[in-house]
Amino acid sequence: MSTPFSFELLAEDACGARRGRFHTSRGVIETPQFMPVGTSATVKAMTTGELKAMDAQIILGNVYHLYLRPGHERIAKFGGLHKFMNWDRPILTDSGGFQVFSLGELRKITEEGVTFRSHIDGSKHLLSPEKVIEIQEALGSDIMMQFDECPPYPAKRDYVAKSMEMSVRWAERCQKARRDDRRTTQALFGIVQGGMHQDLRQQSAQALAEMDLEGYALGGLSVGEPKELMKEVLSYAPALLPRHKPRYLMGVGKPEDLVMAVSEGIDMFDCVMPTRNARNGQLFTHTGPVNIKQARYRDDENRLDSECSCETCQNYSRAYLHHLFRQREILGLRLMTLHNLHFYLNLMSRMRTALELGQFQQFKEDFYHSYSNPSRANKNSGSPG
Amino acid sequence: MSTPFSFELLAEDACGARRGRFHTSRGVIETPQFMPVGTSATVKAMTTGELKAMDAQIILGNVYHLYLRPGHERIAKFGGLHKFMNWDRPILTDSGGFQVFSLGELRKITEEGVTFRSHIDGSKHLLSPEKVIEIQEALGSDIMMQFDECPPYPAKRDYVAKSMEMSVRWAERCQKARRDDRRTTQALFGIVQGGMHQDLRQQSAQALAEMDLEGYALGGLSVGEPKELMKEVLSYAPALLPRHKPRYLMGVGKPEDLVMAVSEGIDMFDCVMPTRNARNGQLFTHTGPVNIKQARYRDDENRLDSECSCETCQNYSRAYLHHLFRQREILGLRLMTLHNLHFYLNLMSRMRTALELGQFQQFKEDFYHSYSNPSRANKNSGSPG
Predict the structure, then answer these.
(1) Cβ-defined contact of A317 to B44 (cutoff 8 Å)
(2) Looking at the complex, does the CB of residue B202 fall below 8 Å from at least one CB of chain A?
């Protein structure tokens, strides 16, 4: 069957960093790309108009949350998730695997799938590969994720191996469960598991590659392992994946992690960090993170980031953001979320440009130099315009 | 001393409803006008850009809150409240009288002023007429309110009379405390007290009128009295005030109250209702209030108000708002606040047009007929565009 999904490789640097373009039936995704997380049919605190204005090209939705509330059948009745939430660009839906495994005592895993109790009302549910495809088809997402098991860290090698093999079988069941009439509009991505073991990652990647899915993700990272271990996996795992398919690193991460992972050949990212941390007062700037709660910002008339063109930095001072945060004002959550997402999306855009110009290694050096030099933060900041 | 503040009376209907224009040094306020409440240097959940887009012409700030946090001196250092919060249209600051009297046990009233303990950290403070002017001059508001005592309802006539007389003396002290160089940029409004007693209201209005202030407010209403009593006071009190000065009814109220009060000759309003009720899920529509929490809206694909042109009604369904509210999503608070403020400002705009056309009585009849007929709400609603 022919598919409209294709991944164009526009440029590649000597170390494996890629500049690409993923074509979907709802438009193009320029890679490397960051996907803001919109768990419950909303990227927290943002309108879809604001997301477009900052050039978000694709956002995430969560099967687990949407299945429980408002329910995928209700969303289907409304014509799908795009219409329900007023977003006409691509959406990737996470399969719910990560969420149900986070439930701990509340869930039970078998070959069939995962039985769990809702964190909302305790009601009992089964998520299986087939069910998860049914839900994602009802939601109408442009990229569906396979159902997988995400083992914790640390875990015994034997457990990780068996779990990875089951995730491969679940990928096959997902692939088989897809409605034929949706294969041209909804892509399916496989998820490579295998923990911190190179041979298991290799087996997983190879089995999934043989299925010729539309894209591939690395799962099971950023689950509590030391940063060095994640780096180690990223030093070999991307190259295990098909070269002409998009590569998505799930749930990662800090700005410096994104730069490192792009450098290793990753194309797509999602993470709650820019949105969640904004609500906790942690703001990203080109000279490193700022904790706006601190008393040092109470009288600071400078803009948050002197090199940022977002609405927050153009119009408001650090002192005002500090005031809003201390007062727990909704406007503070908005302005800070807007800035952090703008920072992440802008970082990806700058990496894309550097890759196009063949200057990615230089960009990387400059980024790390500036980002780990917070003492420059105040000196360079002008007042809001 | 000459003043740039003047009130133009553009039209007046037979019952006393007025279409006017208040000139300030920061621009014109078309009346009747509603002022969104921005207690802590932010209209909760809204950017100033959104407020401008819905044609808010003036917003409120609160002396009590801003004095405690972030402090009027800090705001003065930043160049005033307008610059601090990025709003370049007029601001009216409430004097703090109402807030400190709401503190109950935490405050003590004397002729000198009010001693109170902060609701934040228990620290002790004195607000006096002179202090309140100093604070408002530091904030740089375009309309300052006199310091007054707002007696509760019910209260003994003797107490209300003595309190009203003290509020008049406080008005005189406020007038005297004003810096000469600010008289041309910051107006001072007096506040008529006197409870539900016509003769006391008359005494208060007359004494304040003799001071030739730039505008006058009716205080001490919407403090728990029966609606019929408020109506009774509004049937005579506006006419006690100078005809060629703006008349401001403090803290009122529901949409139907605004229509009634405009009909009695009131020009300006403020109320937390559109913003606060939005956060509690009560939304105003042309067919009456909607409680978006109710299960009946869970599957309702219609827009909130079929006759509303706001961003919320143009882009989202009732079912989506219901979902956001149930999930306590920040976007829900935003979209619902935006709609309610739009509804209030649009109601005022429609009243201004009706007054210009000499059709206010007809408007009033139509409004009450439509607004008290919630059964029409669903029939007339189209889907979001």
Answers:
(1) no
(2) no
Q: Which B-chain residues 266-305 have CB contacts (< 8 A) with chain A?
A: 298-299, 301
Name the β-bridge partners of A304: none
Per DSSP, B46 falls in state -
The DSSP output letter for A45 is T
Write down the pLDDT at residue B100. Answer: 82
The reply to whether B366 belongs to the active site is no
CB neighbour class for B122 (10 Å; exposed up to 12, middle 13-18, buried from 19): exposed
Query: How far apart, in whole angstroms, are the C-alpha atoms of residue B109 and residue A135?
Result: 64
- Phi/psi for A140 (5° steps) reads 80, 30
Question: Is residue B189 left, alpha or beta, with left meaning phi > 0 and alpha meaning psi from -120 to 50?
Answer: beta
Hey, which residues of A are catalytic here?
A: 94, 270
The contacts of residue B366 (CB under 8 Å, 6+ apart) are none
The token pair at B140 is 């740089």
What confidence tens digit (pLDDT) does each residue in A247-259 have? 999 999 999 999 9
With the CA atoms of A285, A291, A294 and A300 taken in that order, what torsion angle do they form, in degrees rounded to the nearest 10?
A: 20
Cα gap B43→B272, rounded to integer Å:
10
**pLDDT per position as a tens digit, B75-110:** 999 999 999 999 999 999 999 888 887 888 888 999
- pTM of the predicted protein model: 0.96
CB B224 within 8 A of CB B254: no
| Whether A323 and B41 lie within 8 Å, measured CB to CB | yes
Among residues B134, B9, B35, the alpha carbon closest in space to that of B90 is found at B35
Beta-carbon contacts of B81 under 8 Å, excluding residues fewer than 6 positions away, are B41, B61, B66, B75, B87, B91, B93, B139, B140, B141
Q: Is B326 on the interface with A (CB under 8 A)?
A: yes
* pLDDT for the residue numbered B373: 67
Q: Which of A269, A285, A270, A259 is nearest to A368 (CA)?
A: A259
Residues forming a β-bridge with A200 = none
User: Is the ipTM value over 0.85, yes or no?
Assistant: yes
Does the beta-carbon distance from A329 to B49 stay under 8 Å?
no
Rounded to 5 degrees, φ, ψ at B311 are -55, -40
Q: Are B317 and A40 in contact (CB < 8 Å)? A: no
- For residues A382 and A313, is the Cβ–Cβ distance under 8 A? no
Mean pLDDT score of chain A = 95
Partner A contacted by B74 (CB < 8 A) = yes
Residues with Cβ within 8 Å of B145's Cβ and at least 6 positions away in sequence, in order, are B92, B93, B94, B95, B97, B136, B188, B189, B191, B217
Residue B69 forms contact with A (CB below 8 Å): yes
